[in-house]
Amino acid sequence: MTSSVPSHLSVPCSDLPWRLLRLPPLSDPAGSLTREDALLARVMAGESGPLAVISRHPRCLVATRREARWPDFAAVGARLAAEGWPVVVRCSGGSCVPQGPGVLNLALIFARPAHWRLEDGYRLLCDLLTAWLDGFGVHAGVGEVAGAFCDGRYNVQVGGCKLAGTAQRWAGSNRRRSVVLAHACLLVDPDLEEMTRQVNRFYALCGQQRRFDPEACTSLRRCLRWPAAAAGDFMAEAESRLVEVLAERFAVDGLRRQG
Fold first, then answer.
1. What is the mean pLDDT of residues 204-210?
2. pTM
3. What domain of life does the native source organism fall in (predicted)?
């Protein structure tokens, strides 16, 4: 089922201005992913204001803690790593997600406002991403996509195919500073056949029955029918337009750009 997302949802406010971080790529998958944890810890400690973080990760499969408890997980991870697809573990829920060339990641890290609901974080992400796609002339909706890896209610989809997935993590408690990390994985120009094949292989080697269809996902490049899709550095173009959306939406809160 597909639904639309209301435009211009309220951006969480803070005494400190929002900052935009564009993190350089790392070759180590685990180190690349744990950078978000370090930034979350800084926001929780009050050492940083709210952050919008754009990053790219090296080729890997990102499994959940639940999946990491499977009996064959360690052996399967070692086997896939030897074949060029290391498996790392994330804290958020869902299921295994591929990362690598052609995938762009957006994380919003901020102190949780009073009365903030889990749904609010997802709606904020989806609002930003549908605005980003609007800039390319691509109309998107939100909803589940049967057959897509890491399917969920808050997929951003185009033509019934998943183009971005979302996840969310809350850290802290009522007695401490509570922080939200809302994350989106954007399929800009990846090899969807290969990525889906590796996710399916991970589940098969772990003795699980789950299988996914590469045709259930799409990419931004596939959706475009005009010259922008032929840009020399399409990933850079996609990232630049995402920065523009973030700068516009967070400008009232003083978003700053940082390379």
1. 97
2. 0.91
3. Bacteria
User: Which residues is 187 bridged to in the sheet?
Assistant: 103
CA proximity to 36, closest of 108, 116, 121:
108
Q: Work out the pLDDT band at 250, boundaries 50, 70, 90.
A: confident
The CATH number of whichever domain residue 102 belongs to comes to 3.30.930.10
Let me know: does 132 contact 88? Beta carbons within 8 Å. no
Domain count, the chain: 1
Q: Is 13 a catalytic residue?
A: no
Q: What are phi and psi of 151, to 5 degrees?
A: -70, 150
Do residues 105 and 54 lie in contact, with contact meaning Cβ atoms separated by under 8 Å? Answer: yes
- Nearest CA-CA partner of 30 in 101, 103, 94, 91: 91
pLDDT for position 253 = 43
Copy the structure tokens of residue 97: 């997600």
Residue of 60, 96, 126, 150 marked catalytic: 150
Contacts of residue 74, defined as CB under 8 A and 6 or more positions apart, other chains included, come to none
Say what the alpha-carbon torsion angle 236, 150, 170, 117 is, to the nearest 10 degrees.
Answer: 100
State the residue range of the domain holding 254: 2-258
The answer, yes or no, to whether residue 181 has pLDDT greater than 60, is yes
